[in-house]
Amino acid sequence: MEKKINVKAEKGKYLRINRKWSNGDLVNLNLPKKLSLRTWEKNHNSVSINYGPLTFSLKIKEDYINKPSDKSAIFDSKWQSDVDKENWPTYEIYPGSAWNYGLILEDDLNETFEIAEKQWPKDNFPFTNESSPIYIKARAKKIKSWKIGDTKLVGELMDSPVESNEKEEIIELVPMGGSRLRISSFPVIKN
Length: 191
Fold this sequence. Notes:
Blueprint: E1 35-40, E2 46-51, E3 54-58, E4 62-66, H1 69-72, E5 91-95, E6 101-103, H2 109-112, E7 113-117, E8 134-142, E9 169-175
């Protein structure tokens, strides 16, 4: 006999289910799926996009370049003398697509963003940019003055709102956890 118990958790609190479990017991966890925006005042008024419990990042093509870590890593990151480095390849990852976007926001987030879903991955592993079953289409413009700095890292954010004379584009945002290269805190384009 199936017994259903509905419990609602409070935001910011833990919920513990204390019971004797049996084979075949099932827990369904329903998390609210609502678009929300977080403004980071201390990070130049940049914004992050959330859908339910997920924070989203720009989908950036990742170019992997094989670089021996004893040549490229910091001074104390060396291999043991007897290690076969061929079995442990190391890579640097660079952006293979544009990353310097600011978001165009409207008061109604549903006018700004479109939630898109695709089929669950056959290998049951949704934690890459390509295999994620959910993504967000967003309106954005490139910010030409936002570049990679001398340290080969993304340059510091500028204060939002930002002027951009570039054409509007539709970009894809993917769950942050599946990306190795991430822009998750975006400048806002001036309307």
